[in-house]
Amino acid sequence: MTKKSLEPTSETIHLTGYQIHIGSCLDRLNHLIQNNAPSKVIVLADHHTEESCLTVLKQGGLTYDSSIVIAAGEKHKSLSTCEKIWQRLFDLKADRHSLLINLGGGVIGDMGGFCASTYMRGISFIQVPTTLLSQVDASIGGKLGIDFYGLKNSIGLFKDPLSVLVDPGFLATLPAKELRSGYAEVVKHGLIRDRDLWEKITQVNDWSNQPWQKVIHQSLLVKKDVVAEDPLEKSIRKILNFGHTIGHAIESVMIDIERPILHGEAVAAGMIAEAFLSHRHGTLTSEDLATITTYLLSVYGQLPIQELDFEKLIRKMGHDKKNIGSAINFTFLDSIGSSSINHTATIEQIRESIDYYSSL
Ligand SMILES: NC(=O)c1ccc[n+]([C@@H]2O[C@H](COP(=O)([O-])OP(=O)(O)OC[C@H]3O[C@@H](n4cnc5c(N)ncnc54)[C@H](O)[C@@H]3O)[C@@H](O)[C@H]2O)c1
Hints:
Layout: E1 11-15, E2 18-22, H1 26-36, E3 41-46, H2 47-60, E4 66-70, H3 79-91, E5 99-104, H4 106-118, E6 124-129, H5 132-138, E7 143-148, E8 151-158, E9 163-166, H6 176-193, H7 195-203, H8 212-229, H9 244-256, H10 263-280, H11 286-300, H12 310-318, E10 329-335, E11 338-344, H13 347-358
Parallel strand pairs: 2-9, 3-4, 3-5, 5-6, 6-9
Antiparallel strand pairs: 1-2, 7-8, 10-11
């Protein structure tokens, strides 16, 4: 990264099997390449991260052999893009000792990790997340995959990277709406487990002007603790799903009707609806519900979800991977900073939550 965009210090978070480094990534990346001596180093980027991030790393002296550049955006997180990536890996003569560097947001990280883990039964990969969303969330926890059959992340696997290098300097070129989208996961981390994080971020008047290195670090610690406790999402890891049962359904339906919205925008709406369900269930107080609703609306505004086909939303929720049998599974907030898993809600209550959101 350029000197201007470099954050002054670096932090390391340890997980079983790999580490997350927060700070300038270039030297560390070169060091990892040197130490692991892969047969080939291939960078996977999309058109935006090629221009904004790979160019800078290249100028800084990143040592790599080739790059694979794909079109940007969620609609390309698909099996057909994977085929192109696998084909390019074969054309580049990548072997089992090759290394893939996933340079991009959650789409590149999820899909690149998936392609690396399945190519020749698995090659090493490093996650270099370049959006706020992927820096605080998608790049850690080992979940990899693609969208399939109109369902988000429905094909994939769990596999850890060699390392995760989080360089907040990359956020300098990220469009504001993408920064805002990623911020929803920071808010979620505060709501489910860290009241102090919630209070810090909500006390800043201008959400887009945060001390990013500190915020990313604190937010990652929430996810790291949860993932370390339950790497394969058998139990407590489901708390990370808060806002996502309804949020993913909204995101998928909006993609289907060709009115795509950003992941974080859908999750923000999902968090309001699911905070309502938590209140309805008797856990969250009406004061906390009002505080959460007011804050999220002030940052994200309101989506026209009352215009969406409710039956379709319910069908999408019915396919959520966290469901057990036919019941739709929810994480509820017990208060701001505390949550619990494996709750259910009736279709009528879910409809009420959508009505609550739409009436704001
Ligand atoms: N694996 C997980 O645990 C997990 C968790 C949360 C979300 N996700 C997934 O993450 C994806 C969303 O990730 P995202 O929001 O990062 O989307 P994204 O990867 O589509 O990136 C958003 C946009 O920003 C551009 N971009 C990326 N970095 C940039 C930079 N530094 N400068 C300029 N432009 C840049 C990209 O090209 C793209 O157009 C979804 O597919 C979601 O399912 C995965």
